[in-house]
Automatic annotation (TrEMBL), chains A, B:
Family annotation (NCBIfam families): nicotinate mononucleotide-dependent phosphoribosyltransferase CobT, PRK04447.1-4, PRK04447.1-5
Lineage: Archaea, Methanobacteriati, Methanobacteriota, Stenosarchaea group, Halobacteria
InterPro entries (UniProt xref): Nict_dMeBzImd_PRibTrfase (IPR003200), Nict_dMeBzImd_PRibTrfase_arc (IPR002805), Nict_dMeBzImd_PRibTrfase_sf (IPR036087)
Family of the protein in this entry: Belongs to the UPF0284 family.
PANTHER family according to UniProt: PTHR38811, UPF0284 PROTEIN SLL1500
The name this protein goes by in its record: UPF0284 protein OB955_09100
Length: 345, 345
């Protein structure tokens, strides 16, 4: 089993208050590079940060890595617009970081990223009969809303924050459409144009790998939440008709702003939801997920779907080990969290 | 356990008759890219060839991959002078392919490759307490002889051909020294200068990763034959005094031109020899190794050292599976081999 992680950045992620993928904007730019290192090596290598949300919720990379340590799977990282170097080995898609979608053009190289990713997906040996494709890109739910709106697809989007700043995202998307001279639905049938104007480089990478692998007869699972629902919409608008599955976490499924069943029907997308039963743990990291933080990312839901029956307890234990290695569960953090909680943030 | 594979090329490999790492010079340039893909994916992806010697001996990548399929280990590929693209994820050392050592300068960027590799080796998490470092570079035993001669280290070098074209290699090295204005031993104590004038980019990469990892207290095993003996000499001449082990195959140890015990003493290098007992198989691939072809490469000896007692039979069986996947053991190949054999080549 191979998990492919498309890692990139978009300046959209720096818009105030739309992402929790990092404690502050100046460290968030390192998040995808650090996530890739955590998944590959078990902790950051040259990336100077461990991504945690402002309230101390560890990156989903910690969860996906814990699953990897329990069940074992291969990882390939796609460099799809990284703004900072990573020590993780990567397949380089020669993608630039994405611009703010409030600019006229957000991903000038959308088409070439897609084509390189498709070539890569089509080159994978037939022996690899199933691929999970995940993502890490701060701000990705806003670009997902941007692309879905440009395509005219009414999908809800989730958030890495417990309270989804949806009005803020909608305002960013509205300004983006205006800057690009678009009305909602104007890019129906031209999904790479939707990404070019309103998306991010990771969407082009995931869509390309999925298209290439499906061409070759490989089963594809989009391992993620609403960001990958938007990619599924891109694929359907590109005329890709192969069987597609989306595997995500129970935290995304529980989000009231998201109707997975409806988008599954609309996009002919098989939906699988995995529940890691984090409520059975009193570890601070898992408690943050239960409180609605992070929810998904770095292929978390898809990775959890690989855990055999009866071994989810091992995964929860391993999450504590990984978090200890990442310095997430020390007393300082716990105290800070309690202080935050008592302030009701 | 992580196996790091430094993959690169040198135009020295194109000198007529010095390497068997590919059926012909025009395909040999793809060998490192293909080896990396075989190790990562189990077969070539975008590389257009499966590396086999002129008589049909499969690349050691097939053996190392078979071990990986039996025992499981992580792989990181370092792009250290690749001349062709690979679909394997890589850590990019920004190394150019090496020039022919008969030019005045063979590796102009030796120092920057070494420094980037050292930074990478030092960045690996402490959790990774042991590293195996292997190589793939056609022509690498000739550049090994070049560097060892420039350092004044009397090491013998092995060959991927059953009959080592040692005179030819010596002649290439002599012309190289002349072109660089060097006498044997002139680079003693300045090993990066030895690589710059007489070596290849993969040597700089392996030496750098080893130096960085040793700095950090990680145990390092050089997984290879005389090419990595030359790298051990580079490390000792660079003043690196940490504990170093070299693990190689019984095929290298059986080479009369190589005295592993003597170089082990000279370079303070712990020597470990692994014997996969290929004589117990009548499969064409393993028979070629018993006939003295290939011998080592792509971390083969080091990978074999990871096989637990009693499981080498599983590895030999898996080699047949991998070879079948690579199309190495079909009737055509076997017939060709028999024809070659009957011609006494």
């Amino acid at each position: 089993m191979r998990v492919i992680l498309a890692a990139g950045t978009t300046e959209t992620g720096l818009v105030d208050g739309i992402s929790a993928a990092g404690a502050a904007p100046e460290v968030m730019v390192h998040t995808p590079a650090a996530d890739a290192e955590i998944l590959v090596y078990g902790e950051p290598a040259i990336a100077p940060v461990t991504p945690v949300s402002p309230t101390g919720c560890p990156t989903p990379a910690a969860i996906t890595r814990a699953v990897r340590e329990v069940v074992g799977f291969d990882v390939t990282v796609l460099a799809a617009g990284l703004a900072k170097p990573t020590a993780a080995p990567t397949v380089d898609l020669e993608a630039a970081p994405g611009a703010d979608i409030r600019e006229p053009v957000a991903v000038p190289d959308a088409e070439s990223i897609f084509e390189r990713a498709r070539e890569y997906g089509a080159s994978l040996p037939e022996d690899e009969d199933e691929l999970l494709i995940g993502e890490t890109i701060p701000g990705g739910t806003t670009t997902a809303l941007g692309v879905a709106t440009a395509l005219g697809e009414p999908i809800g989007v989730s958030s890495s924050l417990p309270a989804n700043p949806l009005e803020r995202k909608r305002a960013v998307v509205e300004r983006g459409l205006e800057a690009s001279g678009l009305e909602p639905g104007d890019c129906a049938g031209t999904p790479l144009e939707a990404i070019r104007t309103m998306g991010d480089p990771v969407q082009a990478a995931v869509a390309g790998v999925a298209a290439g692998a499906l061409d070759r007869g490989t089963r594809v699972t989009l391992a993620g939440g609403t960001q990958l629902v938007a990619v599924a919409a891109v694929l359907r608008h590109a005329g890709v008709s192969g069987r597609l599955r989306l595997t995500t976490t129970s935290f995304v499924a529980a989000d009231e702003g998201v109707d997975l069943e409806a988008v599954g029907d609309r996009l002919d997308l098989e939906i699988e939801v995995t529940d890691p039963a984090f409520e059975r743990s009193d570890h601070v990291s898992m408690a943050r997920y239960c409180a609605g933080e992070a929810k998904e990312g770095v292929g978390m839901g898809g990775a959890l779907s690989l855990v055999p029956d009866g071994r989810m307890g091992d995964v929860r234990e391993r999450i504590e080990t990984v978090c200890a290695r990442l310095g997430v569960d020390d007393d300082r953090t716990r105290t800070e969290l309690e202080t935050e909680d008592s302030r009701g943030s």
